Structures are given as structure tokens and as C-alpha cells.
């Protein structure tokens, strides 16, 4: 019954910005769980983008998006966000919101592994043109 729904994708030029949102329903104690964003480009494997601690105080980023993307959450609204800045063509992908089975998503090793996340949104497309 856990449902995740992303929104905010679109088409932008290189250097532009987009903010993605993900609304979660059906999970008790949403505020106890790490949440994450992944992305998948055509023909590529699903790739970790960012995760955020349950409290929202600690973000984690893939090296490819470090210093450009900002993950945040609003636990009162059961929502997480991904602010994407300075977008590059390489950021073009379908972006997915993910919720783990374990509150910490398995810690350092598990956090970036899509297998740690049984719950996924439908995805939202981000296209960055040159």
C-alpha cells in the first residue's frame, strides 16, 4: 500500500534548473526512513542520485551530482524534493523516488543500492538539451 508519486520533470536547456517532488502515502512513520532518488537513462542501469536521512539533516549524493543537486524533505507533508541546478545533458534520464525496507536503507553500503528499495514511484522524465 506504500505509494510514491513523482512530479516536476520536464525539458530544459543545459545550465537550467528543475525541482522534482515525490509524495509518499501509505507508510507509517515516514519520518523514520531514509528516502532516495535514482535515475535511469535509456540503455543504462538504474543509478543512485541522492538520499536523505530520516530527519532531513544529512544528505548523500552521487559524485556526478554533488554540488549541483540538493535533496530535501518535508516530513509533515510526507514529501521529498530534488532541486537540480546547472543541469547537463548527462542528467537526462527518468528520475525515480524510492523508499527502503530498512529505516537506514542498509547504511553506507545499502543506501546507494536500488535493491535496498522495494518501493518506487512511476518515474518522471528529465530531458536536458544542448
What does this structure look like?
The protein has 130 residues and is mainly β. The chain is built from 1 helix and 11 strands. Strands 2, 4, 5, 6, 9, 10 and 11 form a 7-stranded mixed sheet that branches. Strand 7 and strand 8 form a beta hairpin. It is globular. The mean pLDDT is 97.
Structural features:
130 residues; 7-stranded mixed β-sheet; mainly beta; 4-stranded antiparallel β-sheet; 1 helix; globular; single chain
Compact description:
It contains 1 helix and 11 strands. It is mostly beta strands and 130 residues long.
Mean pLDDT: 97
* Main sheet summary: 7 strands, mixed
Q: Percentage of helical residues?
A: under 10%
Strand portion, in percent? over 45%
Instruction: Provide the low-confidence segments as ranges.
Output: none
Distance between the termini: 40 Å
Structural class by secondary-structure content: mainly beta
**SS element count, helices:** 1
Nearest-angstrom radius of gyration? 14 Å
Give the strand tally: 11
Per-chain topology:
Elements: E1 3-7, E2 10-13, E3 18-25, E4 35-40, E5 47-52, E6 59-61, E7 69-74, E8 79-84, E9 93-99, H1 107-110, E10 119-120, E11 124-129
Parallel strand pairs: 2-11
Antiparallel strand pairs: 1-3, 3-8, 4-5, 4-9, 5-6, 7-8, 9-10, 9-11
Amino acid at each position: 500500500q506504500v505509494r510514491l508519486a513523482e512530479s516536476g520533470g520536464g525539458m530544459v536547456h543545459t545550465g537550467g534548473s528543475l525541482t522534482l517532488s515525490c509524495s509518499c502515502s501509505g507508510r507509517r512513520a515516514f519520518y523514520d526512513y531514509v528516502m532516495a532518488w535514482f535515475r535511469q537513462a535509456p540503455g543504462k542501469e538504474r543509478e543512485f542520485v541522492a538520499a536523505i536521512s530520516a530527519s532531513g539533516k544529512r544528505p548523500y549524493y552521487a559524485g556526478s551530482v554533488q554540488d549541483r543537486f540538493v535533496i530535501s524533505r518535508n516530513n509533515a507533508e510526507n514529501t521529498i524534493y530534488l532541486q537540480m541546478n546547472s543541469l547537463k545533458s548527462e542528467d537526462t534520464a527518468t528520475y525515480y523516488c524510492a523508499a527502503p525496507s530498512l529505516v537506514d536503507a542498509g547504511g553506507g553500503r545499502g543506501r546507494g543500492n536500488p535493491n535496498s528499495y522495494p518501493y518506487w514511484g512511476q518515474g518522471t522524465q528529465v530531458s536536458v538539451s544542448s
